[in-house]
Amino acid sequence: MISKRVYIAGAGIISPLGRGLPATEEALRGNRSSLRPMTLFAVLHGKPLPVGQVDGLNGPSPVPRTHQLAHTAALQAMAVCDRPPDAVIVGTTTGGILTTEQLLRDKVLDKELYRYHGLTSVAEYIAGALGCTGPALAVSTACSSGAVAIASALQLLRRGKAEKVLVGGVDCLCRLTYFGFHSLQLVDQQGCRPLDMHRHGMAVSEGAAMLLLTTVKPARPLAELLGAGLSCDAYHPAAPHPEGRGALMAMQAALADAGLAPAAVDYISLHGTGTPENDLAEAKAVNTLFATPPPLSSIKGATGHSLAASGAIEAVVSAMAVSANILPANTGCRHPDPALGLLPLATPISHATTAVLSNSFGFGGNNGCLVITKPDSFPPAAMPSQARGGLAIHGWSCFTGAGDTARTMSLLTQGSPVAGTAELETISRKLPPRLIRRLKRLSRLTLALAAGAVENSGPGDQPASVFMGTGWGALSETHDFLTGLVDSGDQFPSPTDFVGSVHNGPAGQTAIMFGATGANITVSGGDYSFEQALLAADLFLENTGKKALVLGADEGHHFLSPLFDPSIAPRTPLADGGGAFFLSRKREGAACLVQIPFYPHPATEGCIDSLLESLGGVQTLQGRYALLLAGIPAAEREEGERQLAGFLEKTGLTAPVVRYREFTGEFASASAVAAVMAVSFLAAGKAPGKLGSGADIALASGESILLLGLGRALSALEFSRP
Amino acid sequence: MSKLIEELKVKIIDILNLQDLTPENFNENAQLVGGDLGIDSIDVLEMVVMVEKDYGVVINSQEVGEKVFSSLASLAGYIEGNSSGSAS
Fold first, then answer.
1. Angle, CA of A143, A229 and A592, to the nearest 5°
2. Mind listing the pLDDT tens digit for each residue in A318-329?
3. Rounded (to 5) percent helix, strand, coil in chain B
4. Which of A122, A279, A677, A678 sits between 20 and 30 A of A187, alpha carbons compared?
5. pLDDT tens, A55-100?
6. How much of chain A exceeds pLDDT 90, in percent?
7. Looking at the domain that runs over A7-373, which CATH code has it been given?
8. A598 — phi, psi (to 5°)?
9. Which residues in chain B touch residue A437, judged by CB atoms under 8 angstroms apart?
């Protein structure tokens, strides 16, 4: 099968270099560094560190700085198009945290003011502002988020799930990353000097870049996105593999995906953060892959490292390289480090450029590389044939307030709730003490879930890839880092908590535990995070029999959960947990199949009809479902019930409906537990009647369970026997 | 010095959550970083923070850090040699 060509129809950018492509190009041609002492917030001790800071962002705004940056870039990218995109994908690591930090410092506890904290709020805000009624996804793989978001959009487009996707990355300066990277001694106090022999670290920065990708050839495409490759170091939570193993695998995967040999690459846009370890590992990988490396540079000496935005910003700069034939300099590097064996561009050059490889690497060992070319310069990339019929589940596990899968299912069978928060010791019981000594609640929950699902499938395979959904990420580490920072007068934040605070920390730990070096993607979609993780698996899991872990997990934090999660009211008991699946495309030996007939969509007018259409039309539904598991978050009760009533009325379905949050409690990843319920029931051939009001529900062969997500978004998962 | 060493054992076991270690079986002369304890660069930075916070001694470069953290005894020696006031 020949894949579809994916064009970059438009691009938007806002960074410390300026706003828009012309200003960015001019700054790059001038080889100027934008780094200077940070002024965005007050620093109590010492001199402010050099950062990349965006000037002139509009004053008071109802949304946080990150959302404003993303919106600015989105409007630029959409200038070429008069219709909303079919989907929006945003890479971001910290969402609205700058606002959250200030509110916490001011001891403001009005939860309405925290509504833009979550990562998903950035994607939802952009989708809402543009009138996009399709999926809005937030990818969070630390410093590779922007590149991984773009790789995800590429898959969505190639699979025909959308024709136009607006995708990019964004992050703003905030205390978490400013003090966090400093606590890791990764910040160069003299600015950033990538690849220099005297380099001493990075400069934290901010910005946003968005690209409008389309499979419908525009009149004047900026560039073509020919391929993408992902990998995971599976080595260390914060340091790169010393030999650049993951970096090499990602570059190789991107070139293979694009169908290009290394010799076809005219320019490499390096990740090049300026830390001694990153630049050395990346140089080793480049020198392994390329006999003679092409011209290359890192622009982070000019822009700083804008974290989730950087991969998208550098994708735009790569598009500029092929469209305007400008190769930017490696600003800040005066004495190339002989130990690296690379000679970065000392000045910007005009150079006919057809193919660019753009590297992005991040905490958790999450790597993403993109291949960006002049349009139609190479044969379209060939794609492996696409498996139909969903994902085959070989193992599963869950954790709830009741404990592990066996305890949870035993209580549910009696119709008893499992809501609550298990003791940390209970969660950690089967995990190696050395492996988890630095890990707090969410990472431990995730590892327990992952280990449970793999063990449940019986002896044999290990996962190659990890797809994780979490609504709120590592709240304990985030809370402890910010509290420690304030308590010490901004002097002594914990480096361990900073490393643990990233949303993709748990998935990175999972990869280390299993040596899973394939794609490793963390998404954050509020109450639909698990559904988004399944979506990511559906996009990336190949038809090769290779296995993946798909997880949804959230921790209940006594202070932050009630503040952030709209479904937790003052008297709502704290609950948490999640579910995990060990799955592949191979049906043989599978216990259950899961299909994703309807990716999570914002709940807009007429979306029930789109859902019904995706399920195959009303006529096909009679007798198909023996049970409906309905996910209605407490904050969305009225709307969710209205949607459910509408769905039942239109379909005439009479199958029993279980509102599973009555049993799991309120937390963002409750749907992952519901998914485990569905699989367990199918494996047992019946669902416990005590969950409703009647006798046990027999699940005849051919009958399925429908898991509906309702409320702010609509989603549908269908579980059946193979 | 031995008082400082004993104090550091307790603090390091606590902040690095070395659950299978007790002050009694913590050998102050054994390799601290990269040895059997599984202590890595993040732990070193966590100890840097503790040393600065609790003893007012700044360890700000990697080269210094590597020597200082070679063993718990050398860490104690560095703290003692560089602290301005009392070390407890």
1. 100
2. 999 999 999 999
3. 55, 0, 45
4. A122
5. 988 778 899 999 999 999 999 999 999 999 999 999 999 999 999 9
6. 91
7. 3.40.47.10
8. -140, 105
9. 16-19
Say what the pTM is. Answer: 0.97
Confidence of residue A3 (pLDDT cuts 50, 70, 90): low
Interfacial residues of A (vs B; Cβ cutoff 8 Å): 183-185, 236-239, 433-434, 437-438, 488, 491-496, 499
A188, A189, A431, A437: best mutation site toward chain B, by most B Cβ within 10 Å? A437
Summarize the confidence of residues A133-155 as an average pLDDT. 97
Provide, as residue numbers in chain A, all residues whose Cβ is less than 8 Å from the Cβ of B46: 494-496
CB contact under 8 A, A239 and B43: no
Tell me how far apart the alpha carbons of residues A143 and A171 are, in angstroms, rounded to a whole number.
Answer: 10
Query: Considering just the CA atoms, what is the radius of gyration of chain A in Å?
Result: 24
Q: Smallest Cβ distance to A496: which of B46, B53, B60?
A: B46
Span B16-71, pLDDT tens digits: 999 889 999 999 999 998 887 889 889 999 999 999 999 999 887 766 777 899 99
Which stretch of A294-303, A491-500, A512-521, A611-620 has the lowest confidence by average pLDDT? A611-620
Q: Do B46 and A184 touch (CB under 8 A)?
A: no
Size of interface A-B (CB pairs under 8 A): 43
Residues whose CB is less than 8 angstroms from the CB of residue A384 and which lie 6 or more positions away in sequence, other chains included: A1, A542, A543, A544
Give A381's pLDDT tier (boundaries 50, 70, 90).
confident
Q: How far apart are the C-alpha atoms of A65 and A375, rounded to whole Å?
A: 34
- In this complex, the residue of A183, A236, A434 whose CB is nearest that of residue B49 is A183
Domain layout of chain A by residue ranges: 7-373, 391-720
Q: By the 8 A CB rule, do A621 and A615 touch?
A: yes
Q: Which long-range contacts (CB under 8 A, 24 or more apart) does A602-607 make?
A: A602/A124, A602/A127, A602/A128, A602/A132, A602/A133, A602/A136, A602/A712, A602/A713, A603/A639, A603/A643, A603/A710, A603/A711, A603/A712, A603/A713, A603/A714, A604/A133, A607/A133, A607/A714
CATH 3.30.530.20 fits A391-720, yes or no: no
pLDDT tier for residue A545 given thresholds of 50, 70 and 90: confident
Residues on chain B touching A495 (C-beta within 8 angstroms): 42, 45-46, 49
Residues of chain A found within 8 Å of residue B18, distances taken between Cβ atoms: 437
CA-based nearest residue to A174, from A439, A478, A438? A478
- Tally of CA atoms within 13 A in the half-sphere of A233 that contains its CB: 29
**What are A229's two structure tokens?**
């490759």
CB contact under 8 A, B42 and A499: yes
| Whether the predicted pLDDT of B88 surpasses 80 | no
**Partner A contacted by B45 (CB < 8 A):** yes
The token duo for A110 is 């009005």
Phi, psi of A66, rounded to the nearest 5 degrees = -60, -45
Rounded to whole angstroms, the Cα distance separating B49 from B59 reads 9
Contact, A233 vs A362, CB < 8 A? no
Tell me the DSSP string of B13-35. Answer: HHHTT-TT--STT--TTS--SSS
Please check whether residue B63 touches A, CB under 8 A.
Answer: no
> Rounded to whole angstroms, what are the CA distances from A415 to A422, A629, A664, A690, A695?
19, 14, 11, 4, 11
CA A123 – CA A525 distance, rounded (Å): 9
The pLDDT confidence band at residue A586, using thresholds 50, 70 and 90, is very high
Please state the separation of Cα A558 from the chain's center in Å. 25
Distance from CA of B2 to the nearest CA of A (A): 27
Contact status, residue A660 vs residue A631, Cβ threshold 8 Å: yes
Mutation pick from A436, A438, A491 vs chain B, by most beta carbons of B within 10 Å, is A438
Respond yes or no on whether ipTM tops 0.85. Answer: yes
Domains and CATH numbers, chain B: 2-82 (1.10.1200.10)
Among A515, A521, A545, which residue's Cα sits nearest to residue A392? A545
